[in-house]
Amino acid sequence: MLTRFLRHLETASYASSVLSLLPFGALRSQIAKTCADVYSIEMSRKPWPSDLYQLGRVMGRIKPDVIHGWMYHGNLAATLGSLVCRALAPVIWSVHHSIADITDETPANRRLIQLSGRISSGTSAIVYCSRVAAEQHEAIGFDPRRTLVIPNGIDCNEFQIDASASARLRTELAIPTGRTIVGHVSRFHPMKDQANLVRALARLIGEGYDIQGVFVGEGHIDGTVRTLARELGIDQRITTIGPRADVSDYLAGFDLFALSSAWGESFSLATAEAMSCGVPAVVTGLGDCGQLVGKTGLVVPPRDTEALARGIASLVDLSQDERHSLGLSARRRVEQHFSIDNYVARHLELYQRVVEAQSSTARLA
């Protein structure tokens, strides 16, 4: 989401600098294409005062008009860095996480979230990608006066319907013609509950459904998904692929998309991308995922194998024409409500507003 946002900011003639707390890895080259200045503090896992000094020093060198944090650690760093360098620029936080039950979080994350809530009034705005996430964070102490909900945005030119994608994918992965492809795109993480999706697929295969699960993302090739598939006797019906830059080609080749997250999901980008490719989705009812799919998909409870299996079965049981029609509706829904153009425009309006408010405050002082 960040790289896509930066790319569109550049076309809007906004100069951006990206400051990462940890080493960039492969992401650096993508970000470097979208903005002139890319910095990495390379903080240790337990930050030292010297790390904060380095953070403030780089911020002071950039002299930003707006400081925009991205996710919990980035949000806290945005606030601390602005204090260290005594920047007058407004600070904005972005929250891309939902909290149905804070005990699902690690102890370290709980402390970070609670600390963030206590200092949240010092921001100019807190951008949430879902209404549910905003309400959940407000309930645990985040300042409601700073709330702004901006749903994630999809580049519908990048994620398009491709009538030939299914045939290409079947050829590449040796999936028989006529077998329904149930796709999932995400890194492996307990929060994503891919194990539950494998169990749901195993249940349907045991009932005689001719389906193939395709998992795309980091940690799947030799991880829990592969191991569980072997244990359940469906190893040949589960295809695991590592992270791919051409993920749109895979999404467009799926017959349906399954989101199995158990907690933490606020607004599923992968689901929206699949919808933009004309693929209907089954999602767990976390964050605004139900609002995302609307009537173009199905919503099931999280951590419920039977409910997830039945949701998938409902879409598999549709005819190809019915699934295609549902996919077209999903595509239109993304175009109308969740486009990257709308996402960028609302952020630019926010930047303008907080900069003008900061200037007015400075003049009054």
From TrEMBL:
- Entries under PANTHER family matching the protein: GLYCOSYLTRANSFERASE
Give this protein's Gene Ontology molecular function annotations: glycosyltransferase activity
Q: Where is the Glycosyl transferase family domain?
A: 169-332
Q: What organism is this sequence from?
A: Jiella flava
UniProt-listed InterPro entries = Glyco_trans_1, Glyco_trans_4-like_N
Return the Pfam families for the record: Glyco_transf_4, Glycos_transf_1
Ranges for domain Glycosyltransferase subfamily 4-like N-terminal? 6-157
**What protein name applies here?**
Glycosyltransferase
Higher taxonomy: Bacteria, Pseudomonadati, Pseudomonadota, Alphaproteobacteria, Hyphomicrobiales
The lineage's top-level taxon is Bacteria
Query: Where along the sequence do coiled-coil regions lie?
Result: none
